[in-house]
Amino acid sequence: xxxxxxxxxxxxxxxxxxxxxxxxxxxxxxxxxxxxxxxxxxxxxxxxxxxxxxxxxxxxxxxxxxxxxxxxxxxxxxxxxxxxxxxxxxxxxxxxxxxxxxxxxxxxxxxxxxxxxxxxxxxxxxxxxxxxxxxxxxxxxxxxxxxxxxxxxxxxxxxxxxxxxxxxxxxxxxxxxxxxxxxxxxx
Length: 187
Prior knowledge:
Number of strands: 3
Number of helices: 6
Structural class: alpha+beta
Strand content: 5-15%
């Protein structure tokens, strides 16, 4: 097989070697990383380069050491910065920025209790909910500095005061204060 028909021959051979060392079949590995068995076969033959996500899944599946993972990444010919999960501990990025999208969950979580732990760095609030008979289950954990905790306390106090005012029943002034109270209307 010449170089032009298998441009990723070294990468493919290394991935095949790793699979064989684990005594796993093409079907087992392709199933683990959720790709077609034929695609994995083409990758191992060096004909096809795996997508970045697939290569990261293969690296994870084979539980590769950092340096070996970085070498595979480079064999695949991906330009730019090596993904953070492949960088050896303490290695610094090259200065290119990485954009990550995180899904936010804006649902409200209700709580039955809170346990607050204080450390020299700040406080941690562990919000809990009763589950079952008497078991408590954590539903959220929030940490903050002492300064931020003071701001949260002020905001909470202010909200509680407003809430208490809004809950008071609205009353009309007594009849004697009403300017038309002296006048009785005959029907």
